[in-house]
Each structure stands twice: as structure tokens, then as C-alpha cells.
Design goal:
Blueprint lengths: L27 H4 L11 H4 L3 E3 H13 L3 H20 L9 E3 L1 H11 L20
Antiparallel strand pairs: 1-2
Helix pairs in contact: 3-4
Length: 132
């Protein structure tokens, strides 16, 4: 069965006036089995997760000394990031310089899913995307 045609961008019976809102949302039985699950992380959660330069160095330096190519690669770009922070942000120097882990936290959640026991409250919302 082919997918239904996209909703018209124009008001019904008037090919000159564009719609100003979405058409009525289809009933559940009309949506089909596929859904896109979107998880949004507010910054007030992700800014609580950070890594300081001294913590990073303590974990990575031994691996670099053992010759780990992955550790060398991570150390190269994280080291450059910490050095750039020192240049751009006064007060972020040495081992106390810290990076908020916005993206890594989201990637961790995507890999672990909802299986980790956290105190986070997951709220389901109906989010519609208009397509033409």
C-alpha cells in the first residue's frame, strides 16, 4: 500500500491561501507502526556532568604511555580543546579546567537507552513535524 499523499499546503478549496497551521492530527490507527523516538536533554542536566583536565589526564596518560592509538588520538583533540579553553576563558587553567559533557552524555544515553537506573524523569510528548 503506498503512503498517503502529503497534506496540501493550501486551504481546502482555495489554491491561493497557504495554511497557517497543521491539519488535524491523524487518529492512532491511521499513523501506522513506525514512530521516531526523540529524546531532548535540557542543558541544566548536561552541565552537571563535566570532566576536569586533571581527571582526564589521570585516565589517559597511562594509556598513551602504553602506546594506545585510541588514547593518543583522544589526547590529541582533548588536549587541544583544553588549551583553547585556557586561551579563550580566563580562569580555566591547568588541571581545574573543565568541559561540560553535553554531547557525550547524550551519546551515553543513546547507547544505554532507558535501562540505566537514573533519577531522570522522562516525559513523553506528542511532537509533530510538518512536511511538504
Amino acid at each position: 500500500m503506498p503512503p498517503p499523499p502529503p497534506p496540501s499546503r493550501y486551504l481546502e478549496g482555495d489554491k491561493n491561501t497557504l495554511r497557517s497551521s497543521l491539519p488535524p492530527y491523524p487518529q492512532t490507527d491511521e499513523l501506522g507502526p513506525k514512530r521516531l523516538k526523540v529524546i531532548l536533554f535540557p542543558l541544566d542536566i548536561t552541565t552537571r556532568h563535566s570532566i576536569r583536565r586533571d581527571e582526564f589526564d589521570a585516565k589517559v596518560k597511562p594509556l598513551v604511555n602504553k602506546g594506545s592509538p585510541l588514547a593518543e588520538w583522544i589526547n590529541a583533540w582533548m588536549g587541544a580543546t583544553f588549551r583553547k579553553m585556557e586561551v579563550l576563558h580566563h580562569g580555566h587553567e591547568g588541571g581545574g579546567a573543565a568541559l561540560d559533557l553535553h554531547d557525550p552524555l547524550c551519546v551515553w544515553y543513546a547507547l544505554k537507552g532507558e535501562s540505566p537506573k537514573t533519577e531522570w524523569k522522562i516525559i513523553t510528548e506528542d511532537i509533530r513535524v510538518e512536511t511538504a
